[in-house]
Amino acid sequence: MENYKNKEELISEIRKTAGLFIKEFEDINEEDKDALLEGVDRTPSQMIAYQLGWMNLILSWDEDELNGKEVITPSPNYKWNKLGGLYASFYAEYESYSLSALQKKFNKVLEKFIDWFNNFSDEEVFNQDARKWASSTPSRWPICKWVHINTVAPFKSFRTKIRKWKKVRNKK
Questions:
Q1: Of these four, 20, 27, 83, 165, which has the most CB atoms within 10 Å of its CB?
Q2: How far is CA 120 from CA 26, 78, 159, in A?
Q3: pLDDT tens digits for 126-171?
């Protein structure tokens, strides 16, 4: 994981990589949103749904903890070694949305996520045990690692996937 000097540097990287990621979908036709192409493991709509799912899941963990609820990560219905079912639940939740609606929803959730993250102090962001949910795995990650791994890292990797998807699509 990249090392960030402070929370603002991580927020800046989230905004930059999210902007580049979501921009990749501007030239995809609506009728292609669910096209699964050889060599790419997700459709365009699934890529956005994955991002929406993780950002919303982290927001829900924190909200639940602050409301005194027990947080089971990743979800009461899914285990860390069986994430395929969790991803499928993300895809199912957003499958009825148009690609344009998914892009708008992504931007809205992204802003909500950044607003949430911005409320933490640098100490809370970079130190272990600031939240129980963040310390729920044996590695006891700080919040910054959860945020990086579920925003910046997949924004970059999915940008590569959507570019590959477009390259394969253009060959047909």
A1: 165
A2: 33, 28, 28
A3: 999 999 999 988 888 999 999 999 999 999 999 999 999 999 998 8
Which residues lie across from 75 on neighbouring strands?
A: 78
Helix or strand (DSSP H, E) at 13? helix 7-23
Predicted TM-score (pTM) above 0.85: yes
The closest alpha carbon to 154, from 77, 41, 65, 75, belongs to 41
Contacts of 147 (CB under 8 A, 6+ apart): 10, 14, 58, 117, 125
Per-residue pLDDT tens digits for 52-61: 999 999 999 9
d(CA 40, CA 157): 12
Pair of tokens at residue 20: 């580049």
DSSP 8-state class, residue 4: -
For residue 85, which phi and psi values (nearest 5 degrees)? Answer: -65, -40
